[in-house]
Amino acid sequence: MRRQMLVLAMTCVLGVPVLRAADTETPVVHPAAEERVEVTATKYPDDPDKIPQSMTVISGQDLRDRGATDFRSALALVAGVDLAPGGDGGPASGVPEMWGFREQDAYLLIVDGVPWGGVFNPQVATVSLKDIERIEILRGAAPVMYGTTSFVGVIQVIRYFPGRGAPGIQAAAGSYGSAAIASSFDLGTWAGFGSRLTLDAEQRDYRDPRTDFERGHLLWRNRAELGSGGELHFDLEGTWLNQSPSSPVPRAGSVLAPNVPQDANYNPGGAEIDPRRNAVSGGFTIPKSYGVWSGLVSYAHSSTDALRGFVTDPTGPVFPAIGERSTTAIDEVYADAHVELTNVAKTQIVAGADYQYGKGHLNGGDFDYTINADGSNPQDGTSVPLNINANITDTRNFGGLYGFVAWTPDWRWRLEGGLRLNFTDESRDTSVDDFALATFDQGSDSVGESRLGGSAGVTFTAWQHGVDNVRIFIDYRNAYKPAAVDFGLDAEAEILDPETSESWELGVRTTLLDQKLQIEMSAFDLELQNLVVPTLVNGLPALENAGAERFQGVELEASGHLPYDIVLRAAGSYHDAKFLDYVRDFDGVPTQLAGKRQEMTPIWLAGFGIVYAPSKRFIAHADTSFTGSRYLNKRNTALAAQFTTWGMGIGWRGDRFTIRLDGTNLGDQRDPVAESELADASYYLLEARRIWLSFDWLF
User: Fold this and answer.
1) Which residues of 374-407 are buried (b: 16+ CB within 10 A; e: fewer)?
2) Which of 40, 120, 140, 609 is a good FRET partner for 310, with 20 to 30 A between their CA atoms?
3) Average pLDDT of the residues of the chain
4) By C-alpha distance, which of 611, 537, 533, 527 is closest to 569?
């Protein structure tokens, strides 16, 4: 397999960002030194400083200067955002937290304008962070242009188009026998299309026994210019991923089970979580005298073979466990068409329609096995007979009509509003054959609903001097999202109630010292109804609605550009996430959880980083992150202590090459950072210390 990875990426690269500015609406002077094109909040090029919503734009060059190789390190210095590596999705995956809400499906992941995971869950494990132009992180509910998708944030990854990135190759070697190689380069022009190819492959091993992943990725981007500034583009992309998963650590009472070794792996022999994803997408932009027409359509097919297991009782010399063997296939379609009207003075108008289709099918079952307390000599999971055979098919059709208006009456004010009419239709068919009870059950359910959602926001420029300013913004959002689907083995046919939310955000952002200092501070208030949370049904993982919850907080983010190519970044947040009304059954006793804090959500998060990155010679960076104490359970009886991590890197940059040595979690903290949704009271630990030695060469 490693030889295949080497062959796959033998000619490869990472590019250098080319970012363009776009803001000609107001008569005042606008930033010229480091303007960024932001598209997530508006679907057209705009100035991110004017958006009445908290957001951060991370350039690809910043990722390379910090040696960031995964989502956790990429988002480490974004206010209020934390990503726990690994989780139930496997070691290549991650569980993000935004606005104090840590759930796999609570946010929207977009790659080049396409929802990654469609109408089901974000497929973060299959995203490659190679040849990145920028990452945009938007806090709060997704804009009306993206529909029934997210309550707490949007993460959009944007890769280079042909002709915008430099050609080169990167190779790296790291801890525990890890290795990676990547390359991106333009292929020239064919039939009027500029073409760019990205190839990358990685083998990442872990300190945890029997834990690793191998990933290969290919992206072929094509772009042709049309008359009058239009364009036509299409992409072909494929990802294969082989994962040998780690185990979450079970909890015993108020602490993690003391008799469980830190790196024990309780998965059965042959454990795997192996996604495959192939996708094609295409779009166009056509300028007209009155505005710009744009369209995008994509299709993706993914499949995942899974074999894993979880301990059910961490006592005695031998632990009982339950395993899962399943195959899940998902087809997803996304289509969007909209027009941006530019012929109305001081006003931007976007009107459009979109459609998402998703069909997922799971076939599999569970089995019982035992394993030694230290995880040694695991039983082969492929040979254990299944207790049940479950089949689940879920089909979703989500569509909507949307309109968005941004009005700038003068240089001080920007007022915007969006309205969306959602159309959702879902059907679910399930069957389960219980071999032990000799029973066969099947069921079905369907739900259709139309619902309005919308947003409104105001940005006021309180002070402006040259490129420096102080802006105050306020934002309101009303959002709706059908209940998550986890394709668990519970085979419940009932479709849960949809989740709804209302949120407010008030903030101030400023740029000072000729844009060398940038600060943003915001406060938010989010109320959720019918939040979908994990539970157990007949010993198997399932989902249920959880009444009402409230998320409040304050977030602060700052960056400063000092002389001699030094950049400082700092971020901090206070999050208060509590249940308002949720009755949960614990061992047959109904318990009201009102006033209890959400599990795994720390009150305090903070980070600080410094980067020294001149165009040549010595380069270096260092960063530290603080995670406050958090409860491990909903009843708030198990409190995990606060912890701090730090990393650093040094290197040398020449005319065409860069060599660097980077380390993450150098203090080797192994604290619990994510709760399993498949195993009761079990927690994934922070990844151990990791070192990378890498070499980049530009052709």
Assistant:
1) bbeebbebeebebbbbbbbbbbbbbbbebbbbbb
2) 120
3) 90
4) 611
Give CA–CA dist 610/648, Å, rounded: 9
What is the average per-residue pLDDT within 507-515?
A: 95
Contact 683, 676 (CB under 8 A): yes
Which CATH superfamily is 2-698 part of?
Answer: TonB-dependent receptor, beta-barrel domain (2.40.170.20)
Structure tokens at 47: 């100035």
Inter-residue contact 246 to 684 (CB < 8 Å): yes
Instruction: With CA atoms as reference, report the closest residue to 53 among 422, 402, 553, 455.
Output: 455
Give the least confident one: 242-256, 414-428, 523-537, 673-687: 523-537
- Predicted structure pTM score: 0.91
Q: How far apart are CA 311 and CA 326, in angstroms?
A: 18
* Rounded Cα gap, residues 428 and 431, in angstroms: 10
Q: Other CB atoms closer than 10 Å to residue 15's CB: what's the count?
A: 25
Give the pair of three-digit tokens for residue 301. Answer: 């097919």
Angle value at C-alpha 1, between 690 and 302, nearest 5 degrees: 90
Rounded distance, CA 117 to CA 431, Å? 25
Q: With beta carbons less than 8 A apart as the criterion, state whether 307 and 323 touch.
A: yes
537 pLDDT band, cuts 50/70/90, is low
Nearest CA to 665 out of 636, 625, 607 is that of: 625
- Residue ranges covered by each domain of the chain: 2-698
Is residue 76 within a helix (H) or strand (E), and if so which, with residue range? none
Distance CA 87, CA 245 (A): 9
End-to-end CA distance of the chain: 27
Which of 138, 149, 147, 45 is CA-nearest to residue 353?
Answer: 147
> Which pLDDT band holds residue 10 (cuts at 50, 70, 90)?
very low
- Asked if residues 369 and 309 have their Cβ atoms less than 8 Å apart, the reply is yes
With a CB cutoff of 8 Å and minimum separation 6, the contacts of 199 are 8, 9, 11, 12, 182, 183, 184, 217, 218
Q: Give the burial class of 188: count Cβ atoms within 10 A of its Cβ; 0-12 exposed, 13-18 middle, 19 or more buried.
A: exposed
Question: What is the separation of C-alpha 2 from the centre of its chain, rounded to a whole number of angstroms?
Answer: 27
Half-sphere exposure of 203 (CA within 13 A, CB side): 13
Buried b / exposed e over 240-277, threshold 16 CB at 10 Å, is: bbbbbbbbbbbbbeeebbeebeebbbbbbbbbbbbbbb
Going through 167-290 in order, the beta strands assigned E by DSSP cover 168-174, 178-190, 193-205, 212-225, 231-244, 249-252, 255-256, 272-288
> Measured between alpha carbons, how far is 123 from 115 in angstroms, rounded to an integer?
10
Each residue's pLDDT tens digit, 166-204: 999 999 999 999 999 999 999 989 999 999 999 999 999
Nearest by Cα to 152 from 409, 416, 525:
525
Residue 666 phi, psi dihedral angles, 5° rounding = -65, -20
Q: Under the phi-then-psi rule, with left for phi > 0, alpha for psi from -120 to 50, and beta for the rest, what region is 228?
A: left
DSSP string, 261-319: -TT---PPBT-EEEEEEEEEEEEEEEEETTEEEEEEEEEEEEEEEEEEEEES---SSEE
> CA torsion, points 523, 81, 637, 533, in degrees to nearest 10?
100
CA–CA distances in Å: residue 549 to residues 417, 504, 579, 631, 689? 26, 15, 4, 16, 36
Q: What is the pLDDT of residues 277-328, one digit of tens each?
A: 999 999 999 999 999 999 999 999 999 999 999 999 998 889 999 999 999 9
In the chain, count H helices and then E strands.
3, 40
